[in-house]
Write a structure and sequence with these properties.
By secondary structure, the protein is mostly helical. It is built from six helices and two strands; from the N terminus they run αααββααα. The protein is 54% helix and 5% strand.
């Protein structure tokens, strides 16, 4: 698994933001809105958004009311899928430096890596949405705009 932590966390943050603010109910959220909520530049998150779309995790809608929404229900999106969409598997851990490392720390690292991979397959975006609710975060309620002339 060997993750690049910065890309992994950003991908989770983006997917969670889209699930939290747009969901699958036809609502969308724009890249600029996502970037603003995350405190990042839009151009910085675009590659991640595109990778999540290519992986079939997000839908991208074009046009003036375009943006992003979940392609699947949050309960159907394991966190491992999000990370796989944006991280490249490295060739593997570096060769252990000596017999002690080969006998002890390298197997320990492999064990920890397997545990992390198992946990990421078990957790879904819905689990993160539940954590957000437990933390007291509520989805903003958007009301349709009414123009009176």
């Amino acid at each position: 698994m060997l993750l690049r932590q910065d890309r992994a966390l950003l991908a989770l943050d983006i997917a969670l933001d889209v699930a939290f603010h747009a969901g699958r109910s036809g609502e969308v959220t724009g890249a600029a809105e996502i970037a603003e909520r995350l405190g990042l530049a839009r151009r910085g998150i675009e590659p991640m958004l595109q990778a999540l779309v290519r992986a079939g995790l997000l839908d991208s809608l074009r046009g003036p009311r375009g943006g992003y929404r979940m392609a699947r229900a949050p309960r159907e999106v394991p966190l491992a899928d999000i990370l796989a969409a944006v991280t490249e598997e490295e060739a593997g851990p570096p060769s252990p430096a000596g017999r002690l490392a080969a006998a002890v720390t390298a197997p320990l690292w492999a064990e920890l890596d397997a545990l992390l991979a198992e946990r990421l397959r078990a957790l879904t975006l819905e689990d993160l949405l539940k954590r957000a609710a437990q933390a007291g975060l509520r989805r903003p309620i958007t009301e349709p705009l009414h123009f009176v002339i």
